[in-house]
Amino acid sequence: MTTSYYPIFIDLHGRRCIVVGAGRVAVRKVRSLIEAGARVEVVSPEADAQIRAWADEGKITWHEKKFQPRDLDGFFLVFGATGDRKTNRQIYRAAEQRGLMVNIVDDPELCNLYLPAVVQRGGFQIAISTGGASPLMARRVREELEKRFGPAFGELVAEMADLRSRLHKKVSDADKRRAFWEDFVDLEFFYSLEGGDIAGQLEERAKKCLSRLEG
């Protein structure tokens, strides 16, 4: 029977996250955590040059030592990227005992958190997961979605956030605001925005939708 997982986006700003291991795989995890605004700490006796550079720049804290279970105390999220299954098992057990979310890279059996393949265009994100069964399938689906949802969707959602704020002030009735969005959100129209004046075209569409709403 296939296990059903709960999809979720987590705000990591200011939260303590730890990566055990500091090789090339760990670099990818650390980069994504930095981009998410997490407070990142790395535990490893050796480190990739990029990890060292981030530590020197003050972007992360690197503990130049072997992993001990107590290293996980006080953290919100745990990643294991050591490449050593015995150590990874220690990380997983220590995280489980502390009730922490943990992802051991490339070992679904040692995870209670599975990372999706992500299409990211600024604030617009699509996550694809196979629950660890086939990361390659998730990646291929992501590549297809990246073709369909181009960079314009990042600017699009940023403009819509501003529009949402202005609409809330202009239209007090919640049902009317809902009707506005039902009229406004048209994927075919959004696809056509690539490379054009996105802000101007959205503003013009908003005016037409408001006109129909008030008409």
Account of the 3D structure:
The longest helix is centred in the last third of the chain and has 19 residues, at 152-170. Strands 3-2-1-4-5 form a 5-stranded parallel β-sheet, with helices on both faces. Strands 6-7 form a two-stranded antiparallel ribbon. The mean pLDDT is 93. The chain has helices at residues 24-35, 49-56, 85-97, 135-148, 152-170, 174-184, 187-191, 198-214, and strands at residues 16-20, 39-43, 60-63, 77-80, 101-104, 117-121, 124-128. With 215 residues, the protein is an alpha/beta fold. The chain has 2 domains: 16-115, NAD(P)-binding Rossmann-like Domain (Rossmann fold); 152-214. Helix 6 (174-184) crosses helix 8 (198-214). 46% of the residues lie in helices and 15% in strands. The radius of gyration is 22 Å and the shape is elongated. The N and C termini lie far apart (54 Å).
